[in-house]
Amino acid sequence: MSGQQYDLAVIGGGIQGAGIALFAQRAGLKVVLLERDALARGASGVNAGTLTMQMTRAALIPYALKAHEMWLKAPQWLGHDVGVVACDGLSLAFTEAEEQLLEERGTARRAAGAPINLISASEALKIEPGINPDIRMASHCSIDGYANAYLTGLAYHRALTGSGVDLREYTPVSGVEPAGSGYDLRVPDGIIHARQVALTGGVWIEPMLAWLGLHVPIKTLVNQLAVTERAAPLMRTVVGIASGLLSLKQYPHGTVVIGGGWQGEGSREQNCHRSTHASTVGNARLATHAIPALRHSRIVRIWTGFEAETADALPAIGPVPGFPGLWVCGSAHSGYTSAPYMARCLTQAILGEEPEMPLFPIDRLLARPDAAPRYKEQDCQ
Ligand SMILES: Cc1cc2nc3c(=O)[nH]c(=O)nc-3n(C[C@H](O)[C@H](O)[C@H](O)COP(=O)(O)OP(=O)(O)OC[C@H]3O[C@@H](n4cnc5c(N)ncnc54)[C@H](O)[C@@H]3O)c2cc1C
């Protein structure tokens, strides 16, 4: 065993891993964070930055609400600005079926604590005059907004190094195994030993758990986004549609980010992903349908990233069964929104405390080792 000993090793420097490392170090643990690329260059650095209740599953609303409060205070606990803008959120219905969807989803999310109300077309147009007047109704949420995901890595980098976390970028971990009163981690320059380990590899949680002989299938979504050139003010809220296939907001400097889960293509195994023409066209059509004035703006960049999803679409956050001191954290739907609070809850468990809110243990997700992956791999060549 080498001389590198830690209380906690976190593997994966996305927003979940960065949060856990930061909170644990501040609570007094000696922490190493291992990221095979630069910090927050995966999903956590390329996402649409929406801090949303309208697109968050009802079961996760209580976490998202707590996290929203944290995001608003990011300069206080993170020490750095990530461009958070709090605003209203609107989800639009153009058809009867979409009206019904808004009613069902709004009811479930309101019951979970989100301040979501159904409003008429004229009320929606008063809030956001630029939306298509053909809407039938909308759901309105007073707690919505967005951050600048691009700034996330920068902010966490400063906070982590400032708090004394041993941050090791460009350091892939190739295996973890029980050793003594903890675990040995294989890294390019040897072995690191840690009493506890958190696996926070986004879509790569599945291969990480495979190091320990466990199989938790993680579906790999290839989310696609686009951004327009700078435009005069077109909108001030976050706008979506009932189906969930649109998320639109205009940043203070004028660019509009267009997303909503349109799928590109790619391969987790090859760690590559790219946009598709069909998704670009479909997403842009929907965006200009929702905000007609957007049709005068040109798209200047399209990009993609991997989003992780479990078999039941609920997060994988909790202890790894059979491996004391080993934890997993990821696969949260709208995971950027709720990440700071989920990282805080898991850190409480790592510290031996009762988490403020229940975790999402992975026992329910364990599959037979020979079970086939649920997602379809696509070649990236
Ligand atoms: C295009 C897109 C748009 C999205 N939009 C939104 C949105 O608007 N709002 C919202 O709430 N959510 C959004 N999401 C979801 C959100 O971005 C993710 O849920 C969240 O960022 C996941 O964070 P994470 O830390 O779990 O994973 P990641 O950010 O993927 O981090 C995992 C890290 O682990 C590292 N890693 C993997 N294997 C190893 C290894 N062996 N050794 C060392 N490091 C390793 C990877 O390099 C990666 O950096 C979006 C996602 C995408 C892709």
What's this, in brief?
With 381 residues, the protein is of the alpha/beta class.
List keywords for this structure.
single chain; 381 residues; alpha/beta; FAD/NAD(P)-binding domain; D-Amino Acid Oxidase, Chain A, domain 2; 8-stranded mixed beta sheet; 10 helices; binds flavin-adenine dinucleotide
How are the SSEs placed, and which strands pair?
Elements: E1 5-11, H1 15-26, E2 31-34, H2 43-46, H3 61-72, H4 74-77, E3 85-93, H5 96-111, E4 116-120, H6 121-127, E5 137-146, H7 152-163, E6 166-168, E7 175-179, E8 182-187, E9 190-199, H8 205-210, E10 219-228, E11 238-241, E12 247-250, E13 256-259, E14 265-267, E15 272-274, H9 277-290, E16 299-309, E17 316-319, E18 326-330, H10 335-350
Q: Oligomeric state of the chains? A: single chain
Portion in strands: 25-35%
| Global morphology | elongated
Count of helical segments?
Answer: 10
Radius of gyration: 21 Å
Taken in chain order, the helices and strands follow as EHEHHHEHEHEHEEEEHEEEEEEHEEEH
Q: What is the CATH first-level class name of the largest domain?
A: Alpha Beta
- Percent helix, as a range, is 25-40%
The domain count comes to 2
Low-confidence stretches: none
CATH topology heading of the largest domain: FAD/NAD(P)-binding domain
Query: Which cofactor or ligand species appear?
Result: flavin-adenine dinucleotide
Give the overall average pLDDT.
95
Q: What is the second-level CATH architecture of the largest domain?
A: 3-Layer(bba) Sandwich
Largest sheet: 8 strands, mixed
Output the CATH homologous superfamily of the largest domain: FAD/NAD(P)-binding domain
Helix/sheet category:
alpha/beta
How many DSSP-defined strands? 18
Separation of the first and last Cα atoms: 40 Å
